[in-house]
Amino acid sequence: MPETVTFLCFKGCSTCAKARKWLDGHHVAYTERNIKEDNPTEDELRAWQAESGATIRKMFNTSGQLYRKQNVKERLDAGMGDDDAFALLASNGMMVRRPIVVGDGFALFGFNEKDWESALL
């Protein structure tokens, strides 16, 4: 089990609340970071993508109003490059899929109990 992880979340997100409850229930030490007030930087997102193995598309909050309002799916489908995608993700924390848990050598986007168990327990 990692000593402590960083947990990026949004207070109003029910999935984040479920993930926080899971972390607390499994006694995982974490530092909480509000993704809306302290959104991830491009450098952080690039590093986390490399550690997670996730595609850039999987890093977007596709359920979010901002994602739909800015027609991100259409822009990605039209061939948006990685640099533009990372810049867009870093422009607003609400654009990023959450919760995110980051530890030494791993990053997980979204809450999947099996993935979290493998990485954190």
Topology:
Layout: E1 5-9, H1 14-25, E2 30-34, H2 42-52, H3 65-69, H4 72-77, H5 82-91, E3 100-103, E4 106-109, H6 113-120
Parallel strand pairs: 1-2
Antiparallel strand pairs: 1-3, 3-4
Overview of the structural elements:
With 121 residues, the chain is α+β, with helices and mostly antiparallel strands. The chain has a single domain, classed as Glutaredoxin. The chain is built from six helices and four strands; from the N terminus they run βαβααααββα. The protein has helices spanning 14-25, 42-52, 65-69, 72-77, 82-91, 113-120, and strands at residues 5-9, 30-34, 100-103, 106-109. The chain has a four-stranded mixed sheet. The mean pLDDT is 96.
Which structural class is indicated by helix and strand composition?
A: alpha+beta
CATH topology: Glutaredoxin
- The Cα radius of gyration reads 14 Å
What's the N-to-C terminus distance? 5 Å
Question: Could you spell the SSE succession in H and E letters?
Answer: EHEHHHHEEH
Task: Offer a concise description of the structure.
With 121 residues, this protein is an alpha+beta fold. The chain has helices at residues 14-25, 42-52, 65-69, 72-77, 82-91, 113-120; strands spanning 5-9, 30-34, 100-103, 106-109. A four-stranded mixed beta sheet has the order 2-1-3-4.
